[in-house]
Each structure stands twice: as C-alpha cells, then as structure tokens.
Amino acid sequence: MPKQLRFLILLLVCHSALISNSLAQSFTVKGRLLDESRSPVPGALVRLIEIKDTTHVYATSSNLDGDFLFTGLTKQEYRLSVTAVGKRTLKVAVRAGQETTDLGSLVMSDQPIPVKGVTVQGRVPPAVQVGDTTSYSAKSVRVNEDATMGDLLSKLPGIVVSNGTVTVGGEQVQQVLIDGRPYFGQDPTIALTNIPANLVDRIQVYDQQSDQSRFTGFDDGNDIKTINIVTRRPFGRQSFGKIGGGYGDIQRYTSSGNANIFNDNARVSLIGSSNNVNQQAFSTQDILGVISANNRMIRPGMGGIMGGRGPARAAPFGASGSVQPNNNLVGQQQGINTTSMLGVNGMDSLAHGLFAQGSYFFNRLGNENLQVDHRIYLLGGESISLYDQNSNVSSTNYNNRFSGRMDYWPDASNGITVLPVLYFQSNNATDVLGAVTSGNGPGLQSNSNTNSLNNGYNLSGHVIYRHRFDLPGRSISLDFGIGSNRKQTNGDLSSSDTYSGVGAAQSDSTAQHSNFLSNTQTVNARLIYTEPFPFDVNSMLEFFYDPSYTENTASKYTYNFDPVSGGFTNLDIPLSNAYSDNYSTQSVGLGYRWRGTGINLMANVSYQYSNLQGFDSTTSGTTINRRFGAILPMAMLMYRNREGRFLRVFFRTYTTAPPVTQLQPVVDNSNPLLLTTGNPNLSQSYSQTLMARYNLTSFSSSQMMSLFLFANHTNDYVGNDYVIPSRDTIFSNGVSIDKGAQLTYPVNLNGYWNVRSFFTFGVPFDLISSLLNLNAGVTYSRTPGVVNSIQSVSNTIGPSAGFVVASNISRDFDFTVSYMGNYNFAGNTLLPGGSNNYYSHTAFVNWYWQFWNGFVLGNQVTNEMTSGLAAGYNEDIVLWNASIGKKFLPRDAAEIKLSVNDLLGQNKNVQRTVTDSYIDDTNNSVLTRYVLLTFSYTVR
C-alpha cells in the first residue's frame, strides 16, 4: 500500500486519536470450505466464538471459492461453527497463536433435506434465512453486464428500488456495506449507482445493532436496516471502475466516473459526476431543513412540524454509538436539476489491532422548479377555503460531509471506537410566488419575491469504550457523545397583497430583511453493565444509565425598509424574537435476556426524568419550566429454526421533545398568505412502537415469503393548529392576520396512529426463465389537527398490490416487468360523509438486448396514471426512453450509445398530499424530450 494512500486514509478518519507506539499484536484465521466432492461451499455462515466469553462472536460468510477470513483476533482459544443449507453443522476448535492461522480445507458433509415426492435439481434459490439474516444469491437472477447493484436489487423478492431509495419487506434501507464495511457513509444511493452488479456474490439483509448492543448482547432499539454486499473476490486484489460522458441537444450533458482498488482490508474508492439531466446519484444532506420533499423551501422559523431531539436513550447526533442513519437525507428533487459530486472512501489496517475507515463527499445541486398548487382547507361542515399557488423556485445547494470510524483493540478485553461526523451545508434560494385565497369570505391575492442565503453545520463525535471481565458475561461499556449544530439564514422579502370582495380592492406592500440564527450543543452518554444471571447460564442481566443535556438558542430579527434612510433599519417587533432553552434527561433501567435453542428473549424497563427550561428575552423575560416523568418499557422476541423460518417481534417506547424552532414564538411571513409561528407551551410526546417481521425461505422449492407489520401510537403528538379568519385579526402578541390569510402553529394532540403492513412472495417462473415476485400492503394513518378551534381527524387507508417479473435468461437478454397499484381512501371529520379517494398506478417494462457484433438495444417504458385528483391534475402518460449502442474493444470495455429521453413527449409530475386539515394537489416541472450521445469505458 503506498505511503501516500495510508496518509490520505488517516486524514479521512480523524486526527483526534493519539495512536500508541506499543500496539498489541492481532491475529488472523482463514480457511476454505469444501463439500464431499471437493467442490467449494459458498454462502456458508461462519462464526468464531470465544471460549472465554461465548457472547463475543465474530461472523462472516464464505465466498464463491469457499474461502473465509477473520482478522483483528486476539491470542486465545475459539470455537469455529459453520452452517450451510443442505450441510451438517461443522464445529472446529481453533487457537489463534500465530499471526496467521490457516485451517486449510474443511470438508462439510451432506445432510439430505427430506422432500416428499420432489426431485431437487440445480436451481439457485433466490434467498435463504441464515440466523436473523436474509441472504440473497446474486446468481438467482441474471442481469446484463452493464447493470448496477440497484438493477440487481430491483429483481429480488421483497426489495423495491425507487427514486434512489431501497425498501426491503416494507422497511427502508438506511445503509449499504461492502463486505461488512461502510461505503461512503450511510447514503445507500451512492452504492446503488456505483457498484457493478457483476461484482456481487450475495446480498445480506439484516438489522444492524449499535456497537454497544453487539458487544453486550442487549438490543437497545437503535437498529438500522442494512444491506451488506458480499463481493465475489473479497480477499484478493481487484480493480474496477467506469468512466463516461455525453452531450446532446438543448445543451444537455452528462459525465461520470468511479475507480475502486480492493486489496484485502485496504480499499480505496473515488467517484465523481456532473450532469444536467436529473441524474442524482446521491442523497442530499439537508441539515438546515430548507429543502422539502416537493422542493418548496421550509420557513426557517419552523424547521418541520415533526422535528425533535430524538427518542429516549438515543443520542441526538448518533444512535448509541453509531452515526445516526439518514440524518435529514433528501432524495431526488422535483423539477430540473444540475448536479455535481466528488467523493473518496478509504479503509485499511493501519497497525496491529487498529483499523480505520472514512469518507469525504461533496455535492452541488442546482434546482429549477415551476410548481402549481391547488389546496383545499376543510373548515367544518360544507365550509372550505381554497388556496392556489404558482411558485418558481431557483436554488443552489452545497454539501460537504465527512464520516469516519476507528477501532482499536489492544487486547481481547478492551476496545475503543471513535466515530467522527462533520456535515456542512450552504443553500441559496429564490422563490417568486403568486398565490390567491378564496372560499372563506373576502379573497386575498399575494405576489412575493423571497431571497434567502442559508448555511450551517452539524458536528458530532462518539467515543465508545468496552471492557470484558474474566467472568463470562460480565462487561462494562461507555458511549460518550458530543454534538454541535448551527443554522443561519439571511433573507429578503418583498410582497404586494391585494384584498377583494368588500367594496373596492385594497392593496398593501411589504419590504423586509431578516436574520435568523440557531445553535444547539449536546452532550450525552450511555453506561451499560452486564452480569450473568446467577441461576441460569442462558440468562443475563443489564443495568444502564443514560444522561443527556442539550442547550439551544434561536434568534430572529426582522427589519422593515425605511424610505428616509434608504435601508432596512426599522425593527419589526412582532416579527422578531430571541429565545433559548435547555433540555436535560436522566434515565436509569434494568434489562433481562434469555437465550435458548433458536429463541432469544429480551426485556427492559427504565424511568426517564426530563426537564425543559425556556427563556424568551424579547417579551419581558417570559420563562417556562416543565418537568416530565416517563416509564419506558421495551421487549423483544426472536425465533428462528433450520427450516428457514424467522420471527422477530419488537416493542419499544420513547419520548420526543420539541426543538427550539417549534418553541420559539416568532412569526415567519416569507409567504404572506401562509404565516407560521412557534408555540412555547409545547410538551414532549410519548410514543409506542410495535414491529413484527416473519420470513420463510424454502431451499427445496426456491420460494420466499416475508410479512412485515409496523404500528406507532403517539400521545401529545405535535400537530398543527390552523387559524383561517374571515376578517382581519390581531392577536395579543401583536401579530396580525389579514382576511384571506392564515396562521399555523404547532400544538400537542392525542390520537395519532401510523400503521403499515407489507407482504411479499417470490417464486421461480420457469415458463419464461424468470423470478416472479408478488407484493401487497396496507397503510393506515390517523392524524389529528385543529382548524379555527375545531379539532379534526384525517383518516387515510391505502391498500396496494403489484408484481415484478425478473428475467433469468442470459446476460445478453435482460428484462424486468413490474406493476404497482395504490388506492387511497381519504376522509376527514371536518367533511362528514365526504371523501377524497384517489388511485394511482405505475406499470414498468425495461429490457436490454445485446445481439449481433456487440450492438445493444435498450428500452424503458413507464405508464403513470392518476385519477381522483383536482381538475387538471389527473394524468395518464407513457414515458418511453430508448437507446441503441455499440460495444467494442476487448471484453466489450468501450461503448458508444445514442439515447432519447421521453420519446413521446408526455412526461408530467403530479402528486397529492392529504393532511390533517387540507388536501393538496401539485404539478412540478419535468425534463422532457432530449437526445444524448454518450461514450463509456469500463474496467472489469
């Protein structure tokens, strides 16, 4: 490994840890698994268990050649346990006493699987259940040689890839690992588009626990849905990459490249791209909260209605020792995007017992979106208020993000992990808005122009220390975390408002400049002590203590234009405020765990005491002081057997405190028709979550079934109170609402429910050499709200069903056919007897054909249909993308391709949003027909 690369990786990880000159030696154990015919056994689960403490288990899987490898071991005795479908369990005593212990070839004997009247032939099953991990075989489906990992995942049962996100069995994947190591932090989108499918051997799906949970054996509820990509040659040197670019009509262009060098533990990846054709191969880190899902800028005074400081016992900036997954990640933006990105990811064993990894990623996202909205507010009975808007948003967003990890194990009993995270964001946005209200007395028309410059950072770090005592099961661990978050906004607003409906029209205008600044500092810890149960060798006890302290400050000052001075010098007192608070928690608890053959039970209970103190320095020194006490139970049942059945039921409770942006009582008037403000009287919410998952995989029939259920109930849910007056209104704090406008502020409400279920069934479709995946699900939400002092409840039931047919014919002919239909039954208590039901479906056909002399044809045809929306918003379009290319050079390394996007010119983008008090239909800008000529070169 070049010295320059080692130095680069050291910089990427962090320079906060001082590396000792006397590092202890670590050891390696490797071997090869063969069957009775001396053929390799791939995909076997290989576990290395410490004899001294059986709760400490290393795990890996064998590759296509049957090889397995363990690194970073200490000098002691182990028990090797190997399980594989159709093989007898293999157990071998191992002593790691040399730098490398080579076990040589280990033969696994066959264990026949009893199947009544069925002859099992050489079909690769799409998935097998190995413990609590669902393992998919990449050989179960064939993809073309240019396919990415995202193309491969979309063919597997229970996995859905859409708009850069991945869901498995109804749960969103939050990180992708490559051979057990992170790939560019926790942004799955990067791995989906940059890892070639032909590199993948197996795809392992599981819930990764936090570092402390993996060490202690007690699940703390901070699991993250994880996909681990097992590469085909994980232990040898390999290089792969791809570079390409193209140009087309109407000045459309694209360029991208990636380079990867994998050499055992030392791995380096470099990626980069730039285009203006809406190819966003990453997720945007929106730590400022200024980019919403539909590209509308969120007012800085609110920060999102459902924001919070995080659940109990979860670090606000890290999930109990793991970097918080998907921290404000935003996927593909609506409208027309110009993107650029550059990133480097590296890892290596820097010394004996010391392993480091880290990644740096930069991206720039320019967005243009013309959005048309039609919104209906329900006021009770037959009364409604209409809001129509045309918004032209232009924004440029910059992100710099770094994440790293360093593990140091000087001996078998002590370990230290350092987890630094640094996120920086800058956003410059302009919104030209035209809006009108009607249907609730006099109408109001507003035209406004808003410019805002936003910047901020999120810095955090965790240090985790773990110690194992001589008595097996007795251990102590400490996770200490700190965090700092800063957000700053400078904005200008100019607007003109016209009132109509009562006599002659009246007009008003506004010219303002505002400054907003918020700071958050956090310190938290989690101390855990485990002890073996004195009367049962299968039981353990856990004692834990979680303290945390968060300090917040937020200030906003708004100045009106003074024509005399020619500047923004007049302070607007009702629109200005300075607020601060601190929130502290103390939580102590006791847990119990029992492990039997195939069964794992865990339960704990804690008492949490919280104190929220706030101070409003703008209004005569108003203070708030609230104390909360909560009992927080948690329980988990996990069952698995060798027949491929796996059941996991998990129940937890947690509290969420309102953030300072929801507590600060300052009005944001960036949209003069939709005013927002905070509420210092908010209380923390209390949530209960139940999650159950059942998997069944059959090796003999190559079938797979998965069932997922999730339910969440929240008391003191932070919802919205809408004030929509029919005449000019002035509140006691001096805030005024003009007739036709509205004011929204957060309030605590009870009765919130969110329930969703998902079912999938995968079976070989031999008629056309494919894999058939059937999907179905139902979602239910109950969202309370308040409109003009009348409490409302929005109920939405959404059944869905679909299928995927994935080809398994050859690499030269590859196709995928899918369909998904969704029907939504939406009702609201403010509209008795009424409904706002709507239906949508997506039908998709994608096929790839490489034929004579390296010529390639590609087609993607999508039918999007929506019905039940407002007039002019329903759609029934066919989006057809077609291409023809020619491959040349050895191994078809080079390709030149001509492609047409939206061949029929029908592309549209409409959406419906149903909330507690309104129904919103939107139409966004889209990229229509263009032609692109591209060249690419692949290193395989």
In short:
The protein has 940 residues and is mainly β.
Question: Would you write up a description of this structure?
Answer:
The chain is mostly beta strands. It has 5 helices and 54 strands. The strands form 8 sheets. It has a 26-stranded antiparallel barrel. Strands 8-9-15-16-13-14 form a 6-stranded mixed sheet, with no helix packed on it. Strands 3-2-5-6 form a 4-stranded antiparallel sheet, with no helix packed on it. It is globular and about 90 Å long. The model is unreliable at 1-25, 113-122 and 293-326 (pLDDT under 50).
Properties at a glance:
mainly beta; 54 strands; 940 residues; 4% helix; 5 helices; 63% strand; 26-stranded antiparallel β-barrel; 6-stranded mixed sheet
Structural class: mainly beta
Judging from the principal axes of the Cα atoms, what is the shape?
A: globular
Radius of gyration: 29 Å
Quaternary structure of the protein: single chain
The fraction of residues assigned to DSSP E strands is over 45%
Q: Helical percent range? A: under 10%
Q: Give me the count of strands.
A: 54
**Which stretches of 5+ consecutive residues score pLDDT under 50?**
1-25, 113-122, 293-326
Number of helices: 5
- Overall mean pLDDT: 84
Largest sheet: 26 strands, antiparallel, barrel
